[in-house]
Amino acid sequence: MGRVSSRTRVRRIRPGSTDSRADTLAVEEPLEIRIAGESLAVTMRTPGSDIELTHGFLLTEGIISGADDISVIRYCDGVDDQGRNTYNVLDVAMRDQQLIPETATRNFYATSSCGVCGKASLDAVRLKSDHRPADDRCTVEVGTLTGMPEQLRNAQKTFDLTGGVHGAALFRTDGTLLVAREDVGRHNAVDKVIGWAVQERLLPLRETILMVSSRASFELAQKAVMAGIPILAAVSAPSSLAVDLGNETDLTVIGFLRGESMNVYSGGHRVLE
């Protein structure tokens, strides 16, 4: 559909030299999600895996509980100034034409950096889910966790080209990589991964680990909880609210997963040294 990268020329300045060269950028374009023709959300994303992104977004916002709630998702009119379809508008048809839940009767605008921008309060995203991780007693060995960042990094082909996208991956607790996705928005990358699982009808995601190449923010922890993922691991720091949510829901939150070290902030009973 859309391009994930684009070329431009830059003036590169280095100590003692300046030159002009081609550079590759990650593409960022808006995706509008509609339900029954009514606009629900606009998110700034890297094109690709849009259907997965939509499934993941609708699940983690509590609008659907699984793939069977959706009849069809299709691209609709979204044209550029030359009349070409931009593939930037998706319309969702619910299987039974059910009303959107009260918690979702607002318009979302999500930038590439923040999945919860525009929401009235944190209470609005503390949504109930049928897939909460509290009952998942799975465990993972430290040696398995330390191998995950490299697997994710090896799957980041767009990052190799641009250096400008986040990565997210879903692993089994034995270290098996199930899926990896990239996006300029870390929350979009996670929605794509979860959306893949929704389409594969794998919910709840018991005995899995969500690995992200960014920090572990509240919205990423919330998305993990909504999908029933018991373990969230990040190469950078978690936020205080992510840890609070981990303690509330028994989500294992791991930060600074680099090399042979990591910090375990909540749900430490799942990590075996």
From TrEMBL:
Active site: C114
Gene3D superfamilies, alphabetized: 3.10.20.10, Cytidine Deaminase, domain 2 (3.40.140.10)
PANTHER family: FORMATE DEHYDROGENASE (PTHR30592), SULFUR CARRIER PROTEIN FDHD (PTHR30592:SF1)
Cellular localization per UniProt: Cytoplasm
Domain of life: Bacteria
Sequence similarity: Belongs to the FdhD family.
One Pfam family in the UniProt entry: FdhD-NarQ
Identification of the protein by name: Sulfur carrier protein FdhD
Classification via InterPro entries: Cytidine_deaminase-like, FdhD
Main function: Required for formate dehydrogenase (FDH) activity. Acts as a sulfur carrier protein that transfers sulfur from IscS to the molybdenum cofactor prior to its insertion into FDH.
Signal peptide: none
Origin species: Gordonia rubripertincta (Rhodococcus corallinus)
HAMAP family: FdhD (MF_00187)
Region (Disordered): 1-22
Key words, A-Z: Cytoplasm, Molybdenum cofactor biosynthesis
Keyword Cytoplasm among UniProt keywords: yes
Sequence ranges of Basic residues compositional bias: 1-14
